[in-house]
Design a protein that fits this description.
Layout: H1 4-11, E1 16-17, E2 19-24, E3 30-35, E4 39-43, E5 46-50, H2 59-65, E6 67-72, H3 78-85, E7 98-99, E8 105-106, E9 112-124, E10 127-139, E11 146-149, E12 152-155, H4 156-160
Antiparallel strand pairs: 1-11, 2-3, 2-6, 4-5, 5-10, 6-9, 7-8, 9-10, 11-12
Length: 161
């Protein structure tokens, strides 16, 4: 049997980008969820995926909306990451943001955004695999990603020193 702590430590040696998945319910309530498990799945058709924990209280609200936007965080957005990783009734309180073509929240300093319709949700271990059909996307020409590596957040430039 694999020890969960050992599993986490070993896989923590693989750096991941950090994203906030955002969505808006029909009544206008906004939701956001931090993930380090975002990935490209297919070019044709364009599909992406992420893996929310089954214990997440935010994921069911995003799922009910049927859409989401992936905000790829830049290195300077650590405080934004912490805001969305914490439990809060309104993580968007007093937070300015733009909107994707479908109306999902897009953070101004995100280095990229990907606007999606939920294509498929599959139960997989203690997480869900969420597949999104990409409908629109964009990126900034500057900035480095916020990375998660060995249990801590890092700037790409910091790791290359």
């Amino acid at each position: 049997m694999i020890n969960p702590r050992t599993f986490r430590d070993v896989l923590g040696t693989y750096p991941t980008g950090v994203c906030v998945i955002t969505s808006v319910e029909a009544d206008g309530r906004r939701h956001g969820l931090v993930v380090g498990s975002f990935t490209s799945i297919s070019l044709d058709p364009p599909l992406v995926g992420f893996f929310p924990d089954k214990r997440s209280s935010t994921w069911p609200r995003i799922e009910a909306a049927g859409r989401f936007c992936v905000n790829v965080l830049g290195a300077e957005q650590l405080e934004l990451c912490r805001r969305f990783a914490a439990r809060s009734d309104d993580k968007f309180a007093e937070l300015a943001h733009d909107h994707s073509p479908s109306g999902m929240p897009v953070f101004e300093d995100a280095i990229a955004w990907i606007d999606c319709r939920i294509e498929q949700v599959t139960e997989i271990g203690d997480h869900w695999l969420v597949v999104g059909a990409v409908e629109a996307l964009g990126k900034r020409d500057e900035g480095t990603p916020l990375l998660f590596f060995r249990g801590q957040y890092h700037d790409l430039a910091e790791l290359s020193d």
